[in-house]
């Protein structure tokens, strides 16, 4: 038959069928003769017969019956059966030596593998799936997903044998089978996902086709299912901690880690334009405050399940962003990505905050400086690090004007968390340093100094009742950063002030330096109130040192206050509003003169009507949004000018009131009693004038 199969025919024979030969040769491949030599000979003959059938039929497009499922369901398992048998022997004996030509003829496994490769190499678009599906049936029937060494080797053969443009067919089949086996044991699902990882690793070098989002969507869905299973097992075993339950939980962790590894590997091998889309896609799935229905449904998982999903997705995102180099920072951090990433919903615990900062580092660090900044320390000479940097582009300057306050706010709030550990402080230091290297012009430098002074005030004033370790950690962070910043901008007077404070601390308060506070055994002070000013970085000294260097030091006298968002007001965490209750009423288009003339008599009925108004809450919400947007996007000088105008106006009005009380005008329309605190003043005449905006005062 083999000799017959090798004969080339000029004219195809349409009446000839090979069903009998397929059945007979497939049966020979499964020979179980008692004599091992005869068994091997029969199996080799069966494999050669299948190879002859394939060669005789696959090249004839008009007679493609060999690709029909009833034939593939016999041919493919027969080849895999022989490949599997030698795999079992190899796994016991050890790695096989490379076979010679004679050994290939006598080895059923190698002959079956060559036939399998030849079959797949001849597969076309229409019959690819028929050749791949029997592989899943064979692996399921023989329970070869756990352990999955044979399954991995099979799909490596498949991916390298088929034509590159058909890779996405195989990936789609694996995803479909993963959905089909979603209720199976965690180790089976992990085995299928690891096979997917190997297939994706090969396909990523070629054509992925339209399956990119499908791969990520399916994997994220199974990530949620795995977390659901894990928490369900934990709830069902409450009060009876058995070994089997803990083992199943650890198996689910294996599934989750396999999914994250696959997502990360796949994402990191995509071109940049596709990778940015995947970053947005994954970030859209993270459950945070204010997100749309695109995010994964975690309502039935509870707080613990939501946190697990957040950590898993951020770990996936961390792997996808690794090595991503955007030309401009606005491409790497567009608002739809940046806003949920910096959401307070992702600041619930230290691990979430660490992941967010590491993702930011991947995207901000475009010159691979992060490794040089690893660990928080006082760097004696920054020039020894040989930091790479370019001139700040116009696009990056624009990005910092629009979104810089979000970055500062995230760092500021991150320093105020009680559960911070050393790694959190190290990542916060790296964030400040990378922002300085990649995004800092003169205006940003001033903002970063204001932020550093505000962080120092957190530790000194301690309105949040932080533990002493956290307060000293923040002081050490500020010292390490200002030491780095002063050397980067190279202003001698500024460097001298920073060096002097650090030197004084090393002698009198070493726990304010990172080299001491982050040691295992560090003696902490009982309070910070009794410390001398020489141990602190002083704003007036910094203003003096930077005054002659072209920096707008006037802004340094304005304390840094983080912007307030709607999520802060609705978040379960202690809000920034608790400590900053300042609301400045600056709305676009509101003229000062209009406010003076816009008077309305305030009566009990008017107040009652206002309270009963159902739309008042919506109006207030819109008003807050406009105020926040104003402070986020308007230039600092414009905001300062409007605040100054408003302050001057209120000052003049108060002066008018004082003048009325001292020199009452003629022809008063009535009298009123002025009460301030516990002091009761005499009745004084007043004009028919109204000052509605003074009600606050």
From TrEMBL:
InterPro entries documented for this protein: ARM-type_fold, EFR3_Homologs
GO cellular component: plasma membrane
Any one biological process term the GO annotation gives: protein localization to plasma membrane
SUPFAM superfamilies reported for this sequence: ARM repeat (SSF48371)
Protein name (Swiss-Prot/TrEMBL): EFR3A protein
């Amino acid at each position: 038959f083999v000799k017959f199969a090798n004969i080339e025919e000029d004219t195809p024979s349409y009446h000839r069928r090979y069903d009998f030969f397929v059945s007979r040769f497939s049966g020979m491949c499964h020979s179980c003769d008692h004599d091992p030599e005869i068994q091997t000979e029969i199996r080799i003959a069966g494999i050669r017969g299948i190879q002859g059938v394939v060669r005789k039929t696959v090249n004839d497009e008009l007679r493609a019956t060999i690709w029909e499922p009833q034939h593939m369901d016999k041919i493919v398992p027969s080849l895999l059966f022989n490949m599997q048998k030698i795999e079992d022997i190899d796994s016991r004996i050890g790695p096989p030596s490379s076979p010679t030509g004679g050994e290939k003829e006598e080895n059923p496994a190698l002959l079956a593998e060559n036939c399998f490769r030849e079959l797949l190499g001849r597969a076309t678009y229409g019959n690819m799936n028929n050749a791949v599906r029997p592989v899943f049936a064979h692996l399921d029937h023989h329970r070869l997903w756990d352990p999955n060494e044979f399954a991995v080797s099979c799909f490596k053969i498949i991916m390298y044998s088929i034509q590159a443009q058909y890779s996405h067919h195989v990936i789609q089949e694996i995803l479909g089978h993963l959905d089909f086996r979603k209720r199976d044991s965690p180790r089976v699902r992990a085995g299928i996902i690891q096979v997917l990882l190997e297939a994706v690793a090969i396909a990523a070098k070629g054509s992925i086709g339209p399956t990119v989002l499908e791969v990520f969507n399916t994997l994220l869905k199974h990530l949620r299912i795995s977390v659901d299973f894990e928490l369900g097992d934990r709830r069902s075993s409450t009060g009876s901690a058995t070994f089997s339950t803990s083992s199943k939980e650890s198996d689910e962790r294996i599934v989750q880690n396999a999914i994250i590894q696959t997502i990360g590997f796949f994402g990191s091998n995509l071109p940049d334009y596709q990778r940015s889309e995947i970053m947005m896609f994954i970030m859209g799935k993270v459950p945070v405050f204010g997100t749309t229905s695109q995010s994964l449904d975690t309502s039935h998982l509870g707080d613990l399940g939501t946190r697990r999903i957040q950590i898993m997705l951020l770990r996936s995102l961390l792997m996808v962003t690794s090595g991503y180099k955007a030309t401009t920072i606005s491409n790497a951090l567009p608002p739809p990505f940046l806003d949920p990433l910096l959401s307070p919903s992702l600041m619930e615990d230290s691990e979430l905050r660490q992941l967010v900062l590491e993702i930011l580092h991947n995207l901000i660090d475009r010159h691979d400086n992060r490794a040089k900044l690893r660990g928080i320390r006082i760097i004696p000479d920054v020039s020894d690090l040989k930091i790479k940097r370019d001139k700040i582009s116009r696009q990056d300057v624009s990005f910092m004007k629009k979104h810089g306050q979000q970055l500062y706010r995230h760092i500021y709030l991150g320093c105020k968390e009680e559960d911070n550990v050393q790694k959190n402080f190290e990542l916060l230091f790296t964030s400040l340093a990378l922002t300085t290297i990649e995004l800092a012009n003169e205006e940003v430098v001033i903002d970063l100094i204001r932020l550093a002074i505000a962080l120092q005030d957190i530790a000194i004033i301690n309105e949040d009742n932080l533990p002493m370790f956290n307060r000293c950690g923040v002081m050490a962070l500020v010292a390490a950063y200002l030491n780095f910043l002063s050397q980067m901008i190279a202003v001698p007077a500024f460097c001298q002030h920073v060096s002097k404070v650090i030197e004084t601390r090393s002698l009198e308060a070493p726990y304010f330096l990172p080299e001491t506070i982050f040691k295992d055994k560090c003696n902490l002070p009982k309070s910070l109130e009794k410390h001398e000013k020489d141990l602190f970085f002083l704003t007036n000294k910094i203003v003096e040192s930077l005054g002659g260097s072209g920096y707008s030091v006037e802004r340094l006298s304005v304390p840094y206050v983080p912007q307030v968002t709607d999520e802060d007001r609705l978040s379960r965490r202690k809000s920034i509003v608790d400590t900053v209750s300042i609301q400045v009423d600056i709305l676009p288009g509101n003229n000062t003169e209009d406010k003076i003339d816009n008077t309305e008599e305030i009566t009990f009925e008017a107040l009652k009507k206002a309270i009963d108004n159902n739309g008042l809450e919506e109006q207030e919400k819109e008003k807050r949004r406009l105020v926040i947007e104003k402070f986020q996007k308007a230039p600092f000088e414009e905001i300062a000018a409007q605040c100054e105008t408003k302050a001057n106006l209120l000052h003049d009005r108060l002066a008018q009131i004082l003048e009325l009380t001292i020199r009452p005008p003629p022809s008063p329309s009535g009298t009123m009693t002025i009460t301030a605190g516990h002091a009761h003043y005499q009745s004084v005449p007043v004009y028919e004038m109204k000052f509605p905006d003074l009600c606050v005062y």
